[in-house]
Every structure is written in C-alpha cells, then in structure tokens.
C-alpha cells in the first residue's frame, strides 16, 4: 500500500475509527508506541539519555563483559532519529557513539579490523550529518577529542579518522 492509498483510506474513516486504528497500532508495535509517546511528550533530553545508555552499555556495561555490538548502536541512533528530534540532539548521540568506540579502543588497546571499520563508517555518517546540519564547527572540540583518542590505535585507524574529518572540516 502506498502513502497516497493510506491517506485516502484514512480520509474516508470517521474520527472514532481513526482513533481505533491508532490505538491498535499503539498496542501492536513497540516502535509505534515509542513514537506516539514521544509525540505526546517530546522530552528530547530524556530520550537522548535513554539511547546514550543503550550505546554506553555496549562498551561499558555496569555488569558483565562489553559486547561492542555496533549493530545495537546503529539501531539506537536510527531509532532515535525516527522520533524526529532536533538535529543537535541527533548529533550529540552520534558523537557519543564515536566517543564510546574510540574511548573503548584507547582503554583496551588494539581492536580487530572489523571494529575499526565499523567505527570509521559511523564516524563518516556522523561527519556527513554534522556538515548537512551546519554542526561541525559547534562540535569541533568533541570531534578533536575523538580524533586524539585514535592516535594510539593500530590498523591505520587514526589516519582514516583524520581523513574523514578533513573531508568535512
């Protein structure tokens, strides 16, 4: 079904029927529930912190070993973006993800190549987002701190990160 078909169908429904559809969607899908709750109470700071906790837990869990699942971190960023928060909040989360990955590598020493590739790919997406939203200059101090953490890493990680930064500076 296309958006146009959905819009046409919803327009043909009575208000009570639309409310019923939305309530069913709210109950059926966690993503819809999260979106509607954020829509009604758009506390960006609280939501940002909850997503930072998800990412932070991948690298520095309160219990157990770090899992460093980049897929979980990517999903956290994507899910946060789906809520349509302000670009500066999205930038904050994206930079936090890079900070956590680079700090983890700094703290624990050389990582595997796939770890660095995933971190580089995310940093590339982050820098692109920052550039598109005119947020590079505002976040320059955080970006430089991230780059500084990479200087002790292997696999050409630091060079790649500095090259990415140079593209968007």
Kindly name the structural category. mainly alpha
What is the general shape? Answer: elongated
How large, in whole angstroms, is the Cα Rg? 19 Å
Spans of 5+ residues with little confidence (pLDDT < 50)?
A: none
Query: What's the helix-strand series?
Result: HHHHHHHHH
Distance between the termini: 42 Å
Sheet of most strands: none
Short description:
With 169 residues, the protein is mostly helical.
Provide tags for this entry.
elongated, 169 residues
Describe this structure in words.
With 169 residues, this protein is mainly alpha-helical. The chain has helices at residues 3-12, 15-28, 30-40, 44-59, 70-82, 87-108, 113-132, 140-150, 157-168. α5 (70-82) runs antiparallel to α6. The longest helix is centred in the middle third of the chain and has 22 residues, at 87-108.
